[in-house]
Amino acid sequence: MGAGLAIVDSACEIFRDTKPYKQNPILLSLLNSLLRPYHCTVAEERLVAGSNLDYATMAVHLMDRLQARGSLEGTDLVVLAQYLPNLHPLRITTSHLMHKYGLRGTAFALSEREDAIAYVALKVIRQYLRSRQYRRAVLLVMDQNTIPYDSPDFASIKPENCGVALVLELSSGDGQKRFLENSTESLAERDLGTTLNDRLEDIIRRHGLARDRLSVIANARWYNRWENRNGYDCRILVTNEEYLSASPFITYFTGKCGDDNIIFFHLDTDFKLHKAVLMSGKRSEMVNDHGRSMH
């Protein structure tokens, strides 16, 4: 399976600040141009009523915390994972961050995978780091609540301003909190219930996870399709859809998971199952297939 991704440092925040809306004809023209292929126009009243926090503004708060702890040293890859397009596309978030923090390397944003984008980003970062051309990556998973157009998709969901920053390196071995697995597969809708049970059992068996030291973080779509939800003694945490793409990590940082091993599950609208396994790094919390402790 190859080396996993170790979490060197992290920062997480739900932002409650607001910025007053200032009309910008250039920005409005650009947004309308971007929305035109989707038969939408800017709903300026949303901007007037919104908090108007863009990704760069929120990302700087997270990056400042990482910099203060010295965790940005050696960073040569910055990846922004976003569900919604940036509120202020006149400023390229990743380029702004590279310049502000004096980083050298590669920076880009990933989108177009809706609220599963964080799982896609983890796979992309792992491939970059495994190429050995990059040493350390910062993954930013950002969401915003000011949507400058009318969207039926968000009529019942009010997104939050939130963000998570993960400093990632290739794992050097045990003792690190690390992602050992991150994969995606397409599932048949008619067999979803039993398939989800099988996938959970398979991950527990292959990684030797002790159920009483395991937490499962999953979105509501996965949880509602899971047939054996009462058959496990592990902690089950369902993500809050208002946090959109950052929801699995917001749940992880606020869900009192402690040092447990974590299985992340995300079922998207196309019935693709995204999976990630985050190990605590403590060997005493892992058991093998025969139930004996591994020391």
Descriptive account of the structure:
It is a single chain. With 295 residues, the protein is α/β, with parallel strands linked by helices. The chain has eight helices and ten strands. It has helices at residues 25-35, 44-49, 55-68, 93-100, 117-130, 192-207, 220-225, 247-254, and strands at 5-14, 75-82, 106-110, 136-143, 162-170, 178-186, 214-218, 235-238, 261-267, 272-279. A ten-stranded mixed β-sheet has the order 3-2-4-5-1-6-10-9-7-8, with helices on both faces. Strand 2 (75-82), helix 4 (93-100) and strand 3 form a beta-alpha-beta unit. It is globular, with a radius of gyration of 20 Å. The two termini are 22 Å apart.
The number of helical segments is 8
Number of strands: 10
The assigned structural class equals alpha/beta
Strand order of the largest sheet: 3-2-4-5-1-6-10-9-7-8
Largest sheet: 10 strands, mixed
User: H/E order of the elements?
Assistant: EHHHEHEHEEEHEHEHEE
The unreliable regions are 283-295
| Cα Rg | 20 Å
Q: What is the straight-line distance between the termini?
A: 22 Å
- Estimate the helix proportion, in percent: 25-40%
Query: Average pLDDT, to the nearest integer?
Result: 86
Principal-axes geometry comes out as globular
Strand content: 15-25%
Which SSEs are present, and which pair or pack?
Elements: E1 5-14, H1 25-35, H2 44-49, H3 55-68, E2 75-82, H4 93-100, E3 106-110, H5 117-130, E4 136-143, E5 162-170, E6 178-186, H6 192-207, E7 214-218, H7 220-225, E8 235-238, H8 247-254, E9 261-267, E10 272-279
Parallel strand pairs: 2-3, 2-4, 7-8, 7-9
Antiparallel strand pairs: 1-5, 1-6, 4-5, 6-10, 9-10
Helix pairs in contact: 3-4
